[in-house]
Amino acid sequence: MAIRFDKEKNIFLLTTKNTAYAFEIYGERYLRHLYYGKKTRNIESNPQKYFSFSPYPEDLGVSYSPDLFSSEYAFWGMGDFRTPALRLKGADGTGVCDFTYSSYRIFRGRHDLDGIPSARADEKTKTLEITMKDSVTSCTLKLCYTVFSDSDVISRYMILTNKGKNELEIEKCMSFTLDLDRSDLDMVSFWGSHLHECTYERAPLTHGLRSITSRRGSTSHQFNPFFALCSHKASEGFGDVYGFNFVYSGSFLCEVEVDQRSQTRVSVGLGSENFGYTLAKGESFTSPEAIMTYSNTGFDKMTLNLHDFTRRHILPEKAVLAPHPIVLNTWEGCVFNIERKLLVDFADEAVKLGFDMIVMDDGWFGKRLNDNAGLGDWFENRDRFPNGLGELVRTVKDKGIKFGIWVEPEMVNPDSDLYRAHPDWCLHVPERAPALSRNQLVLDMSRPEVIEYLKDSFRKTFHDVPLDYFKWDMNRHLSDVGSAALPPEKQKEVYFRYMKGVYSLLDWFVSEYPDAVIETCSGGGGRYDLAMMTYGIQIWTSDNTNPYDRTDIQASALMAYPAATMSCHVSDPRGSLASLDYRYKVAVGGMLGYEFDIRKMSDEIKKIIAKQIKEYKRFERLMRRGNYHMIASPVKNDYSAYYYVNGDRNEILLTLIEKKGCKKGETRRLKIKDAIPGVTYTDKYSGVSFSGDDLRRGITLPLSGEPDSAYLFYLK
Ligand code: GLA
Fold this sequence. Notes:
Elements: E1 3-6, E2 11-15, E3 19-26, E4 30-38, E5 86-89, E6 100-108, E7 126-134, E8 139-148, E9 153-162, E10 168-180, E11 185-193, E12 196-204, E13 208-214, E14 223-231, E15 241-246, E16 252-258, E17 264-271, E18 277-279, E19 284-286, E20 290-295, H1 299-314, H2 317-321, E21 327-329, H3 331-334, H4 340-353, E22 357-360, H5 388-398, E23 402-407, E24 411-412, H6 417-421, E25 441-442, H7 448-461, E26 469-472, H8 494-512, E27 517-520, H9 530-533, E28 538-540, H10 547-560, E29 566-571, H11 577-587, E30 591-595, H12 603-625, E31 627-632, E32 639-645, E33 652-658, E34 667-670, E35 680-682, E36 689-691, H13 692-697, E37 699-702, E38 710-715
Parallel strand pairs: 21-22, 21-30, 22-23, 23-26, 26-27, 27-28, 28-29, 29-30
Antiparallel strand pairs: 1-2, 2-3, 3-4, 5-10, 6-7, 7-8, 8-9, 9-19, 9-20, 10-17, 10-18, 11-12, 11-14, 13-16, 14-15, 15-20, 16-17, 24-25, 31-32, 32-33, 33-38, 34-37, 35-36
Alpha-D-galactopyranose (GLA) binds next to loops.
């Protein structure tokens, strides 16, 4: 049983394949966290040691203090001085609240999150719902724990209902609190910027509060919501690792606080700077969900858990079951200079080379001749497409290749018909001129009429256009966040309502175009998050297609997200042939595509690309569904090495990528611990055979020290 309540001990025990999570009802009213770690059934309550200056309730005395207690969800104001999960402002204006245990319920499946995407339940998914009550505000709080047993993942979210007579405000809302009884931990997180997403960082925890956050209205290039805590000596194959993530695409807050007892409080949620919500009498608020996983055998297992969970419960089924199309995208080769003949020429060539799809990127609509104008006007530019979009797409598809198109629904250029007609439809603050970014403003996606306008435009423009794919982009962050449709007291809700509007439009796309797939993008990896992954088959990982930078970005992204989510393009193939080969070998670490002007390519380059595509199709399934194992991270080494292995362990793709600074003649030993002892594997490239035992012990490979050197071994 994945969820059990021990009535004698008053302990809730949640178990997954390899982990256990436990908490107790203390003093018949408080929820005290007891354990998160390796699977065990022997969980007992520990007495609490009192520290002076820690408040306690009169009836329980020093046996209980909210300041010292390992809590399941931390409230503001009643004597817990660490970072809270929930801060409310009720009728008394103080912010103090004290929710106590009332009842529990265990059920199959999970809650729907009221318009926020969430992990898909399967027949084994179960949820524990704890109901708590605050007598003064008359609110009920449901703490929900959904257990994805096979993936070793537990997700948490909360539902708050105002059952009182007065309106109240939610000032801070986190999806969970986790109090770990240790602080001998390092934190691993990804920071970055546009073109340099997912920069790996690892640092030991110190006393006090550390946070990673986005205040940008999107998960952002600057911080990814994934992070891990690990024992100081943890490595790929050794040590304790706790992994966390948030299933949400807007502003977020992840907090890690080491307190006076050297215990660590972890919380993930919406935070408070960009969030506030007024709850009228009778209304409920549901938070997005946050996930956690634990491995006692290092990062490798944490990564496997997260990959498995994302494939089974996050990505749309078609992203996992069907091959991802190998696309030829117009952007890097042609930028805004696209028109009918170019697309038809592209299609003619792309078919010959074996591409599955061409993607017409930015520049096809309104007055979008450059990035100064056109966003918001979602009808085709008739100068560029005189016979209309439908004719173009049918002409291309008749050649035997699919057609994808770029959209950026959340944005508007001041130079657009939409803005001229509805200047108040963008996020703005009255009497202040909103800041521009890439010459664009952000539409107020919290307004239903804006969503309806977008649906209507796309419905009209695409009604006879048999599209196979949408690249959904988002090229700036949210500033001047105000909505002309909401009263002053509700302005703090705009960030959250914006995301709900975006999700509702994405839901509409999914149902309106059921045969098409979506790839999401935000100037590359600016919204590389689990919530976006519930819609798209993959995400454009970064606008940076330099293979040396990409090697680092992809290695970090793969720590948290499976290859099936990672769109990797070969661009600018006109350098040396070695460079083309290198770019390809880096890109096959994920879902392969290309971005260049195919009309300018020599026959020799086209021949090589056709060969690469044919080859990739042989092992695309392995990347999409197989297990990924990092052997050597490019962040810490002068090379990158990793492999993918299928479930039967009889198909392995081993990759070695040399980075700058590799020394010629040095060797590197690559161990494939999943090779089966006694089985012979033959590399399909060189024809050389290796025994499974040798692969497990490690094969020694010399480094060339030459630029653009990378090697693939396809072992079967
Ligand atoms: C963003 C995307 C690019 C491309 C351009 C088009 O930067 O990340 O791939 O689509 O927008 O404007």
